[in-house]
From TrEMBL:
HAMAP family given in the database record: SelA
Entry cofactors: pyridoxal 5'-phosphate
GO cellular component entries: cytoplasm
GN (gene name): selA
The name this protein goes by in its record: L-seryl-tRNA(Sec) selenium transferase
Domain L-seryl-tRNA selenium transferase N-terminal: 5-44
Originating species: Candidatus Pantoea floridensis
Subunit structure: Homodecamer; pentamer of dimers. Binds only one seryl-tRNA(Sec) per dimer.
One GO molecular-function entry: L-seryl-tRNA(Sec) selenium transferase activity
Family: Belongs to the SelA family.
Pfam families according to UniProt: Se-cys_synth_N, SelA
Length: 459
């Protein structure tokens, strides 16, 4: 064993190895030395455990280069999202429009008037530009932008009802992925939750009966990631607004996704629109920037001027505010909504959601033959109808017809599917599908670059 240890090369001599010079030039001595030390340590452990040298001992410089290349890859790897979920939270939700991407790059390369009012040569407010656009598009009086919709809900509660009771229907106490639960947010904001009604039915009289001296807000939460069907009743925003007015209580709505355009016009299921709630008199409405809106991660709050001012002056706003990249991307995204007739082309989220299934089928027919040639020894390939989903809790029950290429192991062994999906996940640009019913499914709804996909899977 001693002799095995003595075969490990010295760091000094490796650093002089001509094969390592490109790596040294690229990453410097400190990084390369650190890397070689880690390899030495790993080799020692390998000898101790297996009484052999690791396989890569044959070529240390090559192994060092391989490891360095892997470590220099960004942790945010571009992937092919063939999961069938368009707004996939784990894959970064909305893909931004070209306009939004340009706007971000532009605001990064030079100083910008983030909080600077050119007319008065004085301090401006960072939310101004986006607020004006939001008011134009929704009819709201004012707007406030924070880091995400969870932050928006927290800020609305903390600023408007600290130490007071907030009345919510039992059927709307939702949990969104990532441990965002309305009761917990309520506690964090220093509010007391008052649940009214039952899981399936809540009436206006339930809210009325709960109103007491310490009531601060009436709140509605859009049950975006589930649906209660059957014997149900919920109170509309308009009814709640009337009740709120009688008792001078603001009504706030966490809309979750929210869409600024009528989705049914694009053949998609209806989703509540923030402007409808503003028209119904709701005091504040919050929704996400990177769900159906198709923009950057952000929490958007629109509504009554006096209440928005309360949010803007609350200390939490400073902690939850967004940076110039987000504002630039959000402004550019919202500008696209001024021209609804070109929105489908300009906004990737909408383009992907509205791709017609015939188009996807034709694409599947083009993509399948080269894949079949490569994989048909071990798998039988087929084109199968499937259904995509919007994702991010939007319209959870509704599915959009799509087509997938499916891979079924010829010997029926499920382990082959795991193996295949693992191999695809280790590609330079990983391919992410889903395993279901003994098949690996590649839903092509979100496939933009089919040539790149074929190259990746066939190489
Ligand atoms: C998605 C969602 C949230 C959280 O929004 P983020 O932007 O992800 O923070 C909150 N409430 C509802 C109803 C949602 O659908």
């Amino acid at each position: 064993m001693k002799t095995l240890y003595s075969q490990l090369p010295a760091i000094d001599s490796l650093l002089r190895d001509p094969a390592l010079q490109p790596l040294l030039a690229q990453t410097g001595t400190a990084f390369t030395t650190h890397q070689l030390r880690a390899m030495q340590q790993e080799a020692r452990e390998h000898i101790q455990q297996h009484q052999t040298l690791p396989a890569w001992h044959a070529n240390w410089p090559q192994e060092a280069l391989r490891r360095a290349a892997r470590q220099q890859q960004s942790a945010l790897r571009p992937v092919f999202n063939l999961t069938g979920t368009v707004l996939h939270t784990n894959l970064g939700r909305a893909q931004l429009s070209d306009r939004a991407i340009e706007a971000v790059v532009n605001c990064l390369r030079q100083p910008v008037t983030l909080e600077y009012a050119l007319d008065e040569a004085a301090r401006g407010h960072r939310d101004n530009a986006v607020s004006a656009l939001l008011c134009e598009l929704t009819g709201a009086e004012a707007a406030c932008i924070v880091n995400n919709n969870a932050a928006a809900v927290l800020l609305m509660l903390a600023a408007l009802a600290p130490g007071r009771e907030v009345i919510v229907s039992r059927g709307e106490l939702v949990e969104i992925g990532g441990a965002f639960r309305i009761p917990d947010v309520m506690r964090q904001a220093g509010c007391t939750l008052v649940e009214v009604g039952t899981t399936n039915r809540t009436h206006l009289k339930d809210y009325r009966a709960a109103i007491a001296e310490n009531s601060g807000l009436l709140m509605k939460v859009h049950t975006s990631n589930y649906q209660i069907q059957g014997f149900t009743h919920a109170v509309t925003e308009a009814e709640l607004v009337e009740l709120g007015e009688a008792y001078q209580l603001p009504v706030i709505t966490d809309l979750g996704s929210g869409s600024l355009i009528d989705m049914t016009g694009f053949g998609l299921p209806a989703e509540p629109m923030p402007q409808q709630l503003i028209a119904a008199g709701v005091s504040l409405v919050s929704f996400s920037g990177d769900k159906l809106l198709g923009g950057p991660q952000a929490g958007i709050i629109i509504g009554k001027k006096a209440l928005i001012e309360q949010l803007q002056s609350h200390p939490l706003k400073r902690a939850l505010r967004v940076d110039k990249m987000t504002l630039a991307a959000l402004e550019a995204t919202l500008q696209l909504y001024r021209q609804p007739e070109t929105l489908r082309e300009a906004l990737p989220t909408l383009r992907l959601l509205t791709r017609c299934s015939q188009d996807i089928l034709q694409q599947a027919e083009r993509v399948m033959p080269p894949l079949a040639q490569r994989y048909s020894a071990d798998f039988s390939l087929a084109i199968a109808a499937c259904s995509s989903q919007i994702g991010s809790g939007s319209l959870p029950v509704e599915r959009i017809p799509s087509y997938a290429i499916t891979f079924t192991p010829r010997d029926g062994r499920g382990s082959h599917l795991n193996h295949l999906s693992q191999r695809w996940r280790s590609l330079a640009r990983p391919v992410i599908g889903r395993i279901q019913e003994g098949k690996l499914w590649l839903d092509l709804r979100c496939l933009d670059d089919e040539t790149a996909l074929i190259q990746a899977l066939v190489a």
